[in-house]
Amino acid sequence: MPLPLPATARPLPARLWLGACALLLLAAALPAEAARLALVVGNDRYQHVTPLRNARNDAQSLAQELQAAGFQVTTVLDGTREQMHDQIDGFLRRIEKGDEVVFFFSGHGSQPPQLGPYLLPVDIKVTGERAIQRDGLSLEQLVDDLNQRARFSLIIVDACRDDPFRATTAGRSLPPGSSLSRIEPPKGSMIIMAASKGQQALDRLGDSDPVPNGLFTRELIKQMRNVGVSAAEMLKRVRSSVETKASAVNHQQRPSLVDESSTDFFFYPPKPGSAVATPGPVQPATLPAAALAPAAQPVPRQGGTPEAAAPAPAPATPANALQAEFELWDRAANSKRREDYEAYLRAYPKGRYAERVREALKQLP
After folding, report:
1. For residue 238, what pLDDT is reported?
2. Do the beta carbons of residue 60 and residue 75 sit within 8 Å?
3. How far apart are CA 346 and CA 84, in angstroms?
4. pTM attached to this predicted model
């Protein structure tokens, strides 16, 4: 006669088994948490056409910002044909449904007659349309490939859209080639190009411009840091700012934006319960000590009647705190001085740029 099972080893009732199985099936059916993935390409050292000055800087700067915003970033600098196509193929294989994807290209672009726009590797030889079609990266194909996999895809192209036969000293153009035209992305995609058709995307605002980024990218980085601003609103601000600053140096550059996204996307989402920002951009702000002090109390006047005190300083907000971190990082990244890097680490030992600051400090004497 078999011994009775101890209470702890007795079989579960059938209804509990069914419930447990249902929970396991439900867990298996739930989608994995969406990933944020980015592929960033910056091509300066063109071997057979005019080299550029700031495309690599733009790519590296944007890669840092995307990492700070929570993206897993793959960076390609001075990519050859083989490298660019290999990296694109590997990047597409990692994308799953529900992911949010950013693709950024800074370098030369071209669009021969009767063809779509192409992004060009550093080893391209522009001997004709077939060379561009064979060796370039088709922007239209890339947009389609991304859209088939990601929930949302943002494509950013910082390249010329003028006639590259025309001589240029400050733009991203090709000696022989053509212009990038507007393309119609599928639903779920958003595309911004650094300039409208027939325009150059400025590499700099003049020979004495000390900023190591092109006009479009420097404005893009500034605006994408704003908390609670959707990508659609952010890119509108980029377009307006670029157009204004280019006009100040007698140049026409108006970024082209095509928005077919079906949902809001944020680099820095609004905090729960807060409204999505739609007014002007958040102004950079430090956090003075007074901002953390309690509100002032009414001061009694003679006779005992309270007199209204001066308004209390605005409380510290997540947006202001983030802007303060950005300010310290920018100061260190621009000066490259040890004291500025160390000031960042003292304030943000686990900050968004802490790892890069530590790497920079190791390189200093």
Report:
1. 93
2. yes
3. 39
4. 0.72
